[in-house]
Specification:
Length: 123
C-alpha cells in the first residue's frame, strides 16, 4: 500500500474483491473490473482517460520446435532508470499449433485539483 496520504495522486488501496493494489481514485478495479463506487462524474472523467502506451504481440512456436515455455514480466522504471516495480504476470507453455496473444496497456488520467510541483510521489 502507498505511504501517500489519502487523496494524494498515486495513493493506493486494496480492491475488496480481488485484493489487487489499485489507485485510491479508481471507481472500477482494473484487474477484476468490479465496480467499487458510484461516481456521477464518471462519464466526464472517461473522456480525460488516455492510453499513452499500448503494445500487442503474438507468439507461436514453429512447427519444427518442441514446446516453448514463456514468462510474462512487467517492469516499471523511473526517470533515473531505477526499477521501482517488477511483476510476473503469467507463465505457461506452448505446443506447435498453439499461440498466445499479449496486450500491455497503460491507462492514464488527469488528477483534478492537483498542481504540478506539490507533493510529488516516488512512483
Amino acid at each position: 500500500m502507498s505511504a501517500l496520504r489519502p487523496g494524494t495522486p498515486g495513493a493506493t488501496r486494496t480492491c475488496p474483491h480481488c485484493k489487487t493494489t489499485i489507485l485510491e481514485s479508481a471507481n472500477v478495479c482494473p484487474a477484476c473490473q468490479h465496480h467499487l463506487r458510484f461516481d456521477p462524474d464518471a462519464v466526464g472523467s472517461k473522456a480525460q482517460r488516455t492510453v499513452p502506451l499500448r503494445v500487442e504481440g503474438t507468439i507461436r512456436p514453429q512447427p519444427t520446435d518442441g514446446a516453448l515455455e514463456y514468462t510474462m514480466v512487467v517492469s516499471i522504471r523511473n526517470e533515473r532508470g531505477e526499477e521501482i516495480d517488477r511483476q510476473v504476470i503469467g507463465v505457461g507453455a506452448l505446443y506447435p499449433g498453439e499461440e498466445r496473444s499479449f496486450t500491455l496497456a497503460v491507462e492514464a488520467f488527469e488528477v483534478k485539483g492537483y498542481r504540478a510541483g506539490k507533493g510529488r510521489s516516488r512512483h
